[in-house]
C-alpha cells in the first residue's frame, strides 16, 4: 500500500510539474508575442494606438510580421466598416444643414470605397502563393494607400468653420481613428515587405 501511495505522489508531482511548465511556456510565448507587437508598433506613426488595437490578438499574431500586417488590416477594416455603418445612420439625421448633408453623403461614399480597398488588401494577403511576393505587396500597398486617401478626403469634408457642432466632432473623431489605424496597417505592411 505504501508503494501505491508513493506512485500516486510521484504521478501527481509529475503532472504538477508538466502543468507548471506548460503554463510558464504559454506565458512566455504570450509575453514574447506582446513584445514583438510593441516593438513592431514603435515603427508606426501612432504606436500607442497600434499596440492597443493589436495586443489582444497576440496569440494569433505570434512573432510573424505577415500575421501582424494581416491583423492590423483586419482591425482597420472592422473599424472602417463600423464607422461606415454609423455614418450611414447619421446621414439620415433630420435637421442637418445642406453642407453637412452633402459632406455626409460624400463621406459615406468615400468610406464605402475604403472598406472595399481594405477588403481587397486583406483578401490578397490571405491568398495562397500565386503571384510574386513583390506584386502582392505592391497591390496591397496601393489599395491601403487608396483607402487612406479616401478616409482623409472624408475628414477634409468636415474641416473649417462652416461646419461646427456635434456631427462634425463625431464624424471627425471616428474618421481620424480609422485613418490612424489604416496608416498603422500600411506601416506594418511596409515592414512585412522588407522581411519576406
UniProtKB/TrEMBL annotation:
Transmembrane segments: none annotated. Coiled coil: none annotated. GO terms for molecular function: pectinesterase inhibitor activity. Gene3D superfamilies: Invertase/pectin methylesterase inhibitor family protein. Pfam families: PMEI (PF04043). Keywords: Signal. The keyword Oxidoreductase does not apply. Residues 32-188 form the Pectinesterase inhibitor domain. Residues 1-25 form the signal peptide. This is Pectinesterase inhibitor domain-containing protein. It comes from Escallonia herrerae. The lineage of its organism: Eukaryota, Viridiplantae, Streptophyta, Embryophyta, Tracheophyta.
